[in-house]
Amino acid sequence: MDKIAVLIPCYNEAQTIQAVIDDFKQELPEGTIYVYDNNSTDDTYAIAKAAGVKVKKESRQGKGNVVRTMFREIDAECYLLVDGDDTYPAKDARNLCREVLENGADMVTGDRLSSTYFSENKRPFHNSGNVVVRNLINYFFKGNIKDILTGYRALSPLFAKSMPVLSKGFEIETEMNIHALDKNFVIKNVEVDYRDRPEGSDSKLNTVSDGIRVIKTIFQLFKDYRPLLFFSVLAGILAILAVILGIPVFLEYFRTGLVERMPTLITAGFLMLAALLNLSCGFILDTENKKARQNFELQLNVLQQLIKGGNA
Length: 312
Fold this sequence. Notes:
Blueprint: E1 2-10, H1 17-27, E2 32-37, H2 44-50, E3 54-57, H3 63-73, E4 76-81, H4 93-101, E5 107-111, H5 117-120, H6 124-140, E6 153-155, H7 157-162, H8 172-182, E7 187-191, H9 207-225, H10 227-256, H11 262-311
Parallel strand pairs: 1-2, 1-4, 2-3, 5-7
Antiparallel strand pairs: 4-6, 5-6
Helix pairs in contact: 6-9, 8-9, 9-10, 10-11
């Protein structure tokens, strides 16, 4: 088992990967560096191989797929996840790892937004998108994570091995944050510097399509992790629509004794029925969710013992 495993997922980072490897070798000489190449069409793989670090290939495209394989194949006391684009200075790495190794944190996020991100980043929609996503997740899941979409974070073995990675792409950061908040892991924020990509190095993120996927992931996980609240809100909306449609029909009936707008009454009835069904689904799924959380806690205890046995 490695003391510190530096995990670098890469896709076409030939321009920057050598600098990233050199910097982390210097700052974390005790760390083991792993570069996972994700079907690069440039010389990323060859450069990393020549640098003398551990290099592997992941054929399934997408950062989520790479991270899933990394967590599954690598055993370490601390996992340091960083992008291969040379935007995260290695000088902050030890501060992130210290929170895991010495202070008992399960997930440590490298907080760019409190330091140099807004001055360094040249893509304005990324700036506003980061703020929107941060506010949504912290509001829905009662968290205080300073930088939701950072690619620079340190993780404990308990978190890495219990993280059910379902996303395939850049939604992985969102998924990790929500998992950590929902399962009550110890989360720390460490302010880190950020520098924009060097000239000629292109971001793999698409502001619109990847942003939509991240927002979609938030609402999907909100439904999965908070089913009672999700379906209660949906039931409330349907019930309000039913009342708005139904009240005029009932007022007319009490005044004339006739129901002249039968289609409206039927529509209101179906809307109220749908509201009751959604509320029932919310209660049922909430009960199942609580049972799943209980089972997860028991599984964590077993996993913790296995990790301790591996360290012995």
